[in-house]
Automatic annotation (TrEMBL):
GO terms for biological process: protein ubiquitination. PANTHER family: DDB1- AND CUL4-ASSOCIATED FACTOR 17. This is DCA17 factor. GO terms for cellular component: Cul4-RING E3 ubiquitin ligase complex. The gene is Dcaf17. Pfam families: DCAF17. InterPro entries: DCAF17 (IPR031620).
């Protein structure tokens, strides 16, 4: 056989394979591509989910600690003492990864983001391939720290000639574009009385990460966006501007960067610009404000909502708002982003009588579904086409999760032992502490589980349990009781990360506690 014919013969089986994307994804889901690196990982996670949900599998409280400073958790690492101490929670017993000396008030960390290496990209430094922590200090330093050793890998000074107090870190595009925001600029009372005007409300510094590079800095000016601006955020390429009357306006952030960029700068670059000379990102010059918005950008969308509550998601795109009147608190409207049309059954109202309001959000599993959480009921809703009206969508119930209130009796009339009839003048609230009430709902993406925390408090002793539900159908798969007492008046955070459950509690007077649970197999010895 000639070489050309042999090549054709070898190529034939590939040509016969499926070319349709849906077929390729379907075959991958059924395990046709066993050499795919993701197959083994998905199989392992599937096994972990089955083991974890077995009746014989327990979660054991393996470690507890208390602190006078906030406790944070990020991907298997517990941070204490203002990020000066890092503890690994992955080992059988938590162990210290690093412990740095106590920092001064001028070095206090205000905010932090975990930075993880992107897959399939060549990076300039070996340290870029390991997880790191981006932190923002009170003195306007942006530091990149090794997540395992706390070593400073990079440092950037943010504030330039004008005084800017940077306090907040957020993602525009997760793990790609980062935004650093100042607090709102406010003039001292004496300056306001003297008639001095303050037009710049916020500064935003934008960075690309890994490698860390400066994109630009811009100011949010009330001469451009209006006097009623109260806050601003950037998410998924959208600049979100919030106003005092509940108005929310959306602008194309990428288009703003391109249209109003005066001059690009690189970190470490020497510059002499607008009467300033220095090095970009170095003290004392910091970063230049090289994006000047001189005219109101084109408006993409605007909506009026109570307390500026506004969310976009679903497929096709929809948004969720609450009508901008206090009497409508707890009422949610789900509307089409295309034409603002209210979806059929798009008004969601649980009619709760509770101290804490119910809440609603788009499901983080990217399914386009909606999660609506009330004191004793969780509704998972879905968007679907109205029959015989393909251009109209309706909200349908996918499944519900109901709190266990079988033993709860709320009679308005009771009879005492002596036979006297007593009538109650009030009914219990829907979130009365003596009734099981949902406090936290979260989603574990790697195991595809919906987790809920339900709490019942009788007297001073509160009891809580973490339940795992099938994300597709809502079936209860596992329930884990918390050993520690749960006070509903305290602030609580619960993290469920594969085989780890972590509970962080904030008590009065800035007292913090952390409880770590790990998955163990139940044995006679443990019993």
């Amino acid at each position: 056989m000639c070489p050309q014919a042999a090549g054709r013969a070898r190529a034939a089986p590939r040509a016969a394979g499926p070319h349709n994307v849906c077929r390729l994804l379907g075959r991958r889901a059924h395990g046709f591509y066993a050499r795919d690196a993701g197959v083994a990982h998905r199989n392992n996670l599937g096994l972990l989910r089955k083991i974890m949900c077995q009746e014989s599998t327990k979660f054991k409280n393996v470690w507890t600690t208390h602190s006078a400073s906030p406790i944070a958790y990020e991907r298997g690492r517990i941070y204490m003492d203002n990020y000066q101490c890092c503890i690994s929670s992955i080992a059988q017993a938590p162990r210290i990864l690093y412990q740095k000396s106590k920092c001064s008030k001028s070095e206090k960390i205000e905010d932090a983001l975990l930075l993880e290496c992107p897959l399939g990209e060549m990076l300039p430094s070996p340290s870029d391939y390991k997880s790191s922590l981006i932190v923002l200090t009170v003195q306007n330093w942006l530091l990149r720290l090794s997540a395992d050793s706390g070593e400073v890998l990079e440092k950037v000074y943010l504030a330039g000639s004008c005084c800017k107090s940077f306090r907040y870190l957020s993602w525009d595009t997760p793990q790609e574009i980062m935004v650093v925001k100042t607090v709102q600029n406010k003039l001292p009372a004496a300056a306001r009385q003297a008639g001095i005007q303050q037009s710049v409300l916020f500064y935003l510094a934008v960075f690309q990460v890994l490698p860390l590079s400066f994109i630009g800095m811009l100011e949010i000016n009330k001469k451009i966006f209006g006097n009623s601006v109260t806050d601003v955020a950037v998410s998924n390429g959208i600049l979100i501007v919030m106003h005092s009357m509940g108005l929310v306006r959306l602008y194309n952030f990428k288009a703003i960067l391109e249209q109003f960029m005066e001059q690009p700068f690189d970190l470490g670059q020497e510059f002499n610009w607008n009467g300033q000379a220095g090095v970009v990102g170095k003290y004392p010059f910091g970063l230049p404000c090289n994006i000047k918005i001189t005219d109101t950008p084109p408006l993409l969308f605007e909506a009026s909502s109570l307390e500026n509550a506004f969310q976009i998601g679903g497929y096709p795109w929809h948004y969720i708002i609450t009508p901008n009147k206090k009497k409508h608190k707890g009422v949610f409207h789900i509307c089409s982003l295309k034409d603002n049309a209210l979806a059929k059954n798009g008004i969601q109202d649980m009619k709760c009588c509770s101290l804490e309001p119910d809440w609603i959000y788009f499901h983080p599993d990217m399914s386009g579904r909606i999660i609506h959480v009330g004191p004793n009921l969780i509704k998972v809703l879905k968007l679907k086409e109205v029959k015989n009206h393909a251009d109209q969508m309706e909200i349908a119930e996918d499944f519900t999760i109901v709190a266990n209130r079988e033993n709860c009796v709320n009679n308005t009339v009771t009879v005492t032992a002596s036979g006297r009839v007593v009538k109650k003048r009030f009914n219990l609230l829907d979130d009365d502490p003596e009734q099981e009430t949902f406090k936290i709902v979260d989603y574990e993406d790697e195991l595809d589980l919906l987790s809920t925390v339900a709490v019942t408090q009788i007297g001073a002793d509160g009891r809580a349990h973490l339940d795992f539900h099938c994300n597709e159908h809502g079936i209860l798969l596992k329930s884990i009781p918390f050993r520690e007492s749960w006070d509903v008046t305290y602030s609580h955070e619960v993290y469920f990360d594969k085989d780890l459950v972590l509970h962080i509690e904030q008590k009065p007077n800035r007292r913090f506690s952390c409880y770590v649970y790990q998955m163990v197999c139940d044995t006679a010895k443990d019993d």
